[in-house]
Every structure is written in structure tokens, then in C-alpha cells.
Amino acid sequence: MLEYDSDEAFSIESDHYERGDVWLIPLKMLDDDARAIQLGAVAELAVEAGQRDFVGDPLRMMLISLEEESRFPYVIESGGVAVGVLTLQSAAATLAGWPDDESVWLLRGFLIDSRSQGRGLGTLAARAASEEARKLTSWLGGGQAGVVLSVNERNPAGLAAYTKAGFVDTGRYLGGNAGPQRTLVRLFQPRMPQ
After folding, report:
1. Which of 44, 112, 122, 185 is the most buried (most CB within 10 A)?
2. Is the pTM of this model over 0.70?
């Protein structure tokens, strides 16, 4: 995850949970060589045909996200290996059935490599993405209160992973072209004074 300080520097940290480590690698913060290495790893991610209906092509998603100012693309790593991707986007929450664009981040293009599924990495990465969005809000001064996403009703594994990560189902969403979705949100937890 990005750690921002007053000099706008960052470091990549992991989220440590009982089942392993997940690292979010911020593609926009890498130099060209490091970004190229990460994008090469993204190109090798395995996506089942049914998954493509929900997430599309991971490399294409990352390349589009790098070009758009409102998107922050990440490679998900575990054990030093790329296991997935995700993008946090500002000013786009209505794309997931949320009533406005500005109050929360949109988590989109979330994918765990088909060979790495079933190990709890989706849950860990969803938690890490929420924490990352909280840090981006603080750093950028956007005022968002949480993260929203939509998950297709034909994707019970995704729904279970997001629920385990603390996302709450707020209802059915019929927008988009992938069929009926569930809108889920995870609001930021207040930070305790130190």
C-alpha cells in the first residue's frame, strides 16, 4: 500500500493477516522500467472465460487506468508474485449503482489470477484496497468516506470475498452490461488518536 508523508513520498507496505501477505503495487508511482516489469506480470495473469465477462482483460484495464487521471491502478502481489489487479477511481461511484460519484471511491477491474483463487487473496486485497483508498483520500484531500463496488449476482465467490473483507451489500443494481449486480460499500473506519 502507499504510505504518504509530508514530502509526498511513498513506500509499499503489505497488509498482514492470518492467512498471508498481500501487497498493492501502485503502477503510477513506479518508474518506467519497474512499471514495464509489473505490466509484463499482468499480461501473464490467467483469466477464466467466465471471469472475463466480469472483469475483461487485465493488461488492457491497467493500460487504460494509467492514462486516466481519476484512476489509480495496482498490481496485487503475494509471495513476490503478481496474483491480480485492481483500480481505485474517483468521481465514478455511480458506475457501481451508488447514488453519487463523489462520496466514495469506486473499486473496479478487481481480478485474482485463476491459479491463485481459493486462498483468501481476494478478501485480503479488498481490505487492502479500502485502506489504500482511505490513504489516497487523505493525501489528495478528496473527502471520500469509503469504497463502493458492484459484483455480478452470478459471482457468488466474489460476493463472499467482499463480504468477508467488510463490504456491506446495499442492494441490487441493474446498470452496466454484465447483468444484475449487487452494490457493496465499505466505509472507512475512523482512526484512533495516538
Report:
1. 112
2. yes
